[in-house]
Amino acid sequence: MATEQRSAASPGDKADVGQLRHDSGHVEHTQSTQDGAPPVERDGAKRRKKRSRGRSDTDGRNAAHAAGPAGQAQSADAVTSPKGKKAANRRGRRRWQASRNAKNGRGPKPDANAGQTAVNAEQANGHSAPPLKDDSKAQEARGHRSPPSAQQARTNADKGTRGRRSRNNGARAPLYAALDLGTNNCRLLIARPEERGFRVVDAYSRIVRLGEGVGSNRRLSSAAMDRAIDALDNCHRKLADRGVLRSRLIATEACRAAENGAAFIERVRSETGLALEVVNRETEARLAVAGCASLVDHQADGVILFDIGGGSSEIVWLDLRNRCGARGYALTRFIRSWISLPVGVVNLAERHGGVHVTPEIFEAMVDDAADHLSAFSLADTLSEAIGTGRVHMLGTSGTVTTLAGVHLGLPRYDRRKVDGTWLDDDDVARMIDQLRDMPYEARVENPCIGADRADLVLAGCAILEAIRRRWSCSRLRVADRGLREGILTELMAADGVWSHRSQRKRQDRRRWRD
């Protein structure tokens, strides 16, 4: 309802009379200088209802008409509270960002009357407008075996990110996905980029043992392929439901070594719609570094990173003596040397046995893995760096996470407590001896091992022991992360997610500073 205010001057007062006109938050100051002018009547402009922000609606207006020492009316800006100014700045930033998004095609165009109160005729008469009809639930569900179309993927992406917006702008952040089909596991990770890093939205992991029997007959078995197809089918459903637009799906050692690996990749494409990429060992080593780089000690001069897999094990030397403060994904530039051993927990356990492991069998597995370490280039140079500098180990595999869980005495495996844990060299040796002396039934009952890993964990301990005997470090850091995190980091870095956001923040700061 319109509000009218009047202010009169004394008959003999020749002071200027200030007239204030409020229009959607804008204050205009005009003056009348006629001697003996009659009282000036202020037009009753409609005022917007102000949100309750802890201040009175009339304090500012009453103070605005108070005469100053010279008898002149003060400007309303001079009495506006700091909280009100901040609120006005926030509204201005939102309107500017909305118009910028509309210009770039990232959001709906702002209303031409944005910032003003729109009154519906029916609401003015006391009637409420009918609610908007939401027909999103009427869409038919898509079959999970056919890949989603681009339009449907965008729709699902909007659904999956509804209510979650980037901190830097109003646009919805896209979803990224990484799938790692290894010799033993099938893992999927779906994440959304954030200010620094990314936040996991959905995850999936299943032990499929795709490389079972590959070491002896060089072929993927029918049962192993069926298990992998079933797990990949579940992954495809998650990708379709989430509406992921950017992803990388890789397969590692089992598909590299098997003679029918290419035929299996084609079968996966035809039955699930997923296009798997068989990566080489160098790529696998680089992705492991990218996924675990955030756990590297900031004061370290070097890192021995190892990934004990099901069919192969990668070892990487990061020479950080001249990194000049580099950290995170930038550490991938400091790979000095790397090696991929053709031994993993699956093929090593198949050769030596993993159920009933005697001390003699365990030593045989250690020797088997140690024979392949002699091919590591710059091995002696690495030994010298360990003796003179600050070098630590960084392990990413089910073996080291199991050791950490047993060391912490967890009643059940908890990734939040395991990821990033530091273990002294004596602690690692004690855990290996404890697992080696543990019978198979006790390993099955251990909550951090279970039946799925009970026959494989000692083979992983043997590979770790071979690495420790070749290069001895005082500390080992445990990483419950690896290839999937490395894939997501590379995808987001290639899209410039973090660099674009930093640039936008700098531009916004310059705009509002001016």
Q: What is the fold's blueprint, element by element?
A:
Blueprint: E1 6-7, E2 17-23, E3 26-32, E4 40-41, H1 59-64, H2 82-104, H3 121-124, H4 150-160, E5 176-181, E6 185-193, E7 198-207, H5 214-217, H6 222-242, E8 246-251, H7 253-257, H8 261-272, E9 277-278, H9 281-292, E10 302-308, E11 313-319, E12 335-341, H10 345-352, H11 359-373, H12 379-388, E13 391-395, H13 398-408, H14 415-418, E14 422-424, H15 425-436, H16 440-445, H17 457-470, E15 475-478, H18 483-494, H19 497-513
Parallel strand pairs: 5-8, 8-9, 10-13, 13-15
Antiparallel strand pairs: 1-4, 2-3, 5-6, 6-7, 10-11, 11-12, 14-15
Report on this model:
The chain is 40% helix and 16% strand. With 514 residues, the protein is of the alpha/beta class. Strands 12-11-10-13-15-14 form a 6-stranded mixed beta sheet, with helices on both faces. It has a 5-stranded mixed beta sheet with strand order 7-6-5-8-9, with helices on both faces. It has a two-stranded antiparallel ribbon with strand order 1-4. The protein is globular and about 80 Å long. The relative contact order is 0.09. The N terminus is likely disordered.
